[in-house]
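Recall the central idea of this unit: under ordinary conditions, the amino acid sequence of a chain determines the structure it adopts. In this exercise we apply that idea directly, starting from the sequence alone.
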Amino acid sequence: MTRLAFLFALGLSTLALANSPAADWSRFRGPNGSGVGEGTLPPIDPKKPFWKTPIPGKGISSPIIVKGKIFLQTGAMDGKTRSLLCLDAANGKTLWTKDVPGSPAKPKSIHPKNTLASSTPASDGEQVYCVWWDGAALSLSAYDLSGNERWSSSLGGWDSQHGPGSSPVVHGGMVYVNIDDDEHAELVAFDAKTGDRKWIAERKHYRASYTTPLVLKRGSRPDELLLGTTTAITSYDPATGKVNWEFELPWPKGSKILRVIGHPVYVAGLLVMSGGDGDGSRFMIAVDPEKKTKVWGLDRKSLPYVPCMLVKDDLLFWIGDKPGGQAACAEPRTGNVLYSEEITTLPPSSSPVLVGDKILMVAEDGQIVVFKAAKELDVVSNVKLGEGVFASPALADGRLYIRGTKHLYCFGK
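Accordingly, the structure predicted from this sequence is:
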């Protein structure tokens, strides 16, 4: 190859890389809800973010990043409006805002840590899907990336003292929403393009659960849509809603039945799910999806209730949320806990994320701790953001996004 030809080929390669799409974070906890980001974790200096922008109102909706745009939901402080915000990921500037009407929450209809905008939107790269709560009922709406509404559908009322917070999931041209309050439970599927309701799967209910579905891939088997709640872990056919199999949670007679917020994770051929209660009760169960049997169970206060778990190299990681934040690692086949140590003073309400060999967690007071995803605890950094954090972080294109109680922060280049 001549020097001229080499330089021409190099220029084309550089141009292709420059115009290649950035890695998106298109739903709650990123790709398939795994909480795993690509690349390396950028340096985190709260005094020197890449950019920092104020977010109006109040909400704990996590940001998603699609085609260089950030989407997140918020609620007006007076409770009369809910909004979908679209920001430029390069500089944090607001590109557009889509408002929908609402009303303040009724007394005893929402948890003190919950908000009027707690659902994280999801996107298929063409549209953004939002679950709205107007203070009484739920709805699902679809918008194009310019903020034009494409369709909207009612999801019915919501009856729970904690308020709603489930997030939609998009897969194979369908949008799925878990509706699980104190009175009824169902998994609903919509056509992503038209908003037509494709199927409804009724579920046994007991206490409100907030888990998002995930797509379970096992070898050459067809994709399974998996949902775990207080009553059962269920595998559905994504296209029809037909139940492939179900494992009912074996609550002992007379025991307190606990809520599930974080979805199950698939690790070492097992499904592991955790749950809890505000009184400090916790549980964790590992299920063999082949045999539909319980493999092991844990009952300790250092287990996670609200935060989701992480998987790395056939190891299970979690952050406990009572009373502080306990970083833990376990062997998934046995449930053997390798370590469980408190690393933050206050507990987290957000879920941790994994980048490379590093796990990042954020406590409710904004304390950010990074530690190695290894069999021994190795804390890499420990800093304070300067404001509270209740939303889960997001990662895309080498940047870390953290929504605080007042601002959205971006770290990276």
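The first strand starts at residue 36 and ends at 37.
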